[in-house]
């Protein structure tokens, strides 16, 4: 019965879910969506028992690095590892099918959108006993928000894999072409708006815009504005929201202003902000650390620069006060299927991925920033010729908030982006009243959804 309930709930929720990067880049944690499925091509030798662990992930950018780490583990364990990269939507479809009576991978990623459902329905291996006996794993070494995310009823069902942050990406060549000063660490969102307006006006004949907003992206997009101005999409206790407050409306008003000098949403829907940026159509976007490799490998990457996230200037004093420079962060978790035929081997692999050694290698290889505290500096040095320190400096020079979630995140997350809420304001950013009304509607939608959880 639990499997049937899980299938029904996940089918409803995931049909509308979008990645936010590691997080949510609808992108997000998530964010981060992947390319077509691909096998790992592991050349490791299986153990005498001929055990091969199936590992499923959704981000092709991480495949090579993770396979290298897994192969190092295989040399010691004698267990082969086959990593499959599956597109975001297909990933959850296949995992749901496995949870509903099919075959689940041995080891796989968990995300904040769905973790609670899988944990509550006993689909994930309880790791408590393994962790208690494992000298390589101390849960206090990981970011608290990610640890808590993968707990249910006091039990740990996944170990944090990584964490991510957000930065402002800009094209130096376009700024130079139109004679606009480039972003600095002192920039507010008003500065971003003014620069975007200048470039959009100067680049009109060339079809160039100063900014692009993908409104379906929340973790690496508009969520940050809400928090910059002092509100919360979901309160810390996961039981409410302040998005309809004056502070929430101020944050969303800045999003509205940026939309008036940005690429039309119809164009963004067709091409996506990343593609538009790499086509030299857009001078600035925000993006998550999980997407660095996509820009680092681009032909024009020498023109691409990362800047610290701008601040909200909610106090209107022209300086960045505490809490006005925020970045969403999220973190995936390494989990194992509750019914895996190889629980010991599955945990051993997870332990190696999440150990200090494995986490340092993940950072050094530029896979993602670590979930293990204090080892992400190696990540900032992993991209020769591209300064990505904005992603790590935000932790000291700004504030982090964990990607908003509740028990049924996708229910309200999808609803607030539809007609009758933010979609109306995004499609007609010329009318400030529509954004204010949308914030009020979002407040009610989120409160009603939480009440039903």
Q: How much of the sequence is in beta strands?
A: 5-15%
Proportion of helical residues? 40-55%
**Mean pLDDT, as a whole number?**
90
The coarse silhouette is globular
Briefly note the structural class of the backbone: alpha/beta
Number of strands: 12
Task: State the end-to-end distance.
Answer: 19 Å
- Low-confidence region ranges: 1-5, 11-20, 23-48
Radius of gyration: 22 Å
- Main β sheet profile: 5 strands, mixed
Give the number of helices.
20
**What is the topology, as strand order, of the major beta sheet?**
2-1-3-11-6
Explain this structure to me?
This protein has helices spanning 2-14, 63-77, 88-99, 115-120, 128-132, 144-149, 172-177, 189-202, 218-228, 246-259, 265-271, 273-278, 292-296, 343-354, 356-364, 377-380, 390-397, 409-415, 422-427, 432-452, and strands at 52-57, 80-85, 107-110, 151-152, 155-156, 159-160, 166-171, 284-288, 304-307, 326-329, 333-336, 399-402. By secondary structure, the chain is α/β, with parallel strands linked by helices. Strands 2-1-3-11-6 form a 5-stranded mixed β-sheet. β4 (151-152) and β5 form a beta hairpin. α1 (2-14) packs antiparallel against α3 (88-99) and α10 packs across α20. The longest helix is centred in the C-terminal third of the chain and has 21 residues, at 432-452. It is globular.
Question: What does this entry show, briefly?
Answer:
This protein is α/β, with parallel strands linked by helices and 453 residues long. Helix content is 41%, strand content 11%.
Write the SSE topology.
Blueprint: H1 2-14, E1 52-57, H2 63-77, E2 80-85, H3 88-99, E3 107-110, H4 115-120, H5 128-132, H6 144-149, E4 151-152, E5 155-156, E6 159-160, E7 166-171, H7 172-177, H8 189-202, H9 218-228, H10 246-259, H11 265-271, H12 273-278, E8 284-288, H13 292-296, E9 304-307, E10 326-329, E11 333-336, H14 343-354, H15 356-364, H16 377-380, H17 390-397, E12 399-402, H18 409-415, H19 422-427, H20 432-452
Parallel strand pairs: 1-2, 1-3, 10-12
Antiparallel strand pairs: 3-11, 4-5, 6-11, 7-8, 7-9
Helix pairs in contact: 1-3, 2-14, 9-10, 10-20, 14-15, 18-20
